[in-house]
Amino acid sequence: MRVIVAEDSALMREGLVGLLERFSHTVVAAVGDAPALVGAVRRDRPDLVLTDVRMPPRNADDGLRAAVELRSADPALPVLVLSQFVEPVAAEALLDTGDGDGVGYLLKDRVADVTAFAAAVERVAGGGTVLDPEVVRRLVRRRRDPVGRLSPREREVLDLMAQGRSNTEIAATLVLSDAAVNKHVRAVFTKLDLPAESAGHRRVLAVLAWLRSGQ
Questions:
Q1: CATH number of the domain encompassing residue 76
Q2: How many structural domains does the chain have?
């Protein structure tokens, strides 16, 4: 199998390359940033992409964004993502591509179990789905808790709402326009399933949901 590895840590990258080659896979490219990953996939057309979530150039979720971009262009491209931490938003974004077939999300600690890791690589390459047990637990919790649907910015807005701030005050605090704040507030109401007919109470209900979530 032809594999592309994307990992910004040189030590981890070389370790993954050695591990894949140990199981008779061919690493056609090993890169350290998201743009290089996209370029390598377009050039080499691998059978599997193995990528970290957090990589340069922004050192944020660049690897995940690249994986989603690649899967959007080619839903049949198998992608196995490795992450140091459980990031439910990242996992859901990946699972939303290609109907969730041929994708995997594992914590890096799982690589230590060489046999299980090799099996996960084969399963994803064959069109299967592999999710770390901790990722599954967090996804279940996130779906039970509607607050988990909110983006980081929407959480900031809701937190300030819980502090009793008006939309104008929220705009000043977050350095946003009034229109942007209004948009985020509407998104909060929608994601928390607060119907329009409860408009007079939606702000209070949203704050109660925030408090119940223990954020």
A1: 3.40.50.2300
A2: 2
Distance (Å) of CA 91 to CA 10, 85, 106: 24, 11, 10
How far out from the chain centre does Cα 154 lie?
17
Mean pLDDT throughout 60-67?
92
What is the rounded distance in angstroms from the CA atom of residue 23 to the CA atom of residue 40?
A: 22
Q: Which residues pair with 27 in a beta bridge?
A: 3
Axis crossing angle, helix 202-212 with helix 178-191, rounded to the nearest 10: 70
Residue-range definition of the domain harbouring residue 200: 146-212
Q: Please write the tens of the pLDDT for every residue from 71-127.
A: 989 999 999 999 888 777 777 778 778 777 898 889 898 888 999 999 999 999 999
Cβ atoms of 6 and 50 closer than 8 Å: yes
- Report the C-alpha gap between 162 and 79 in whole angstroms: 39
> What is the C-alpha separation between 122 and 115, in angstroms, rounded?
11
CA dist., res. 153 & res. 142, Å (int) = 17
CB 215 within 8 A of CB 155: yes
**What ranges in 23-151 are assigned the alpha helix state H?**
34-44, 62-73, 88-95, 114-125, 133-144
Between CA 60 and CA 53 the distance in angstroms is 8
Residue type, 95: L
- DSSP letter (8 states) at residue 24: T
59: left (phi over 0), alpha (psi -120 to 50) or beta: left
Is residue 173 very low, low, confident or very high in pLDDT (cuts 50, 70, 90)? very high
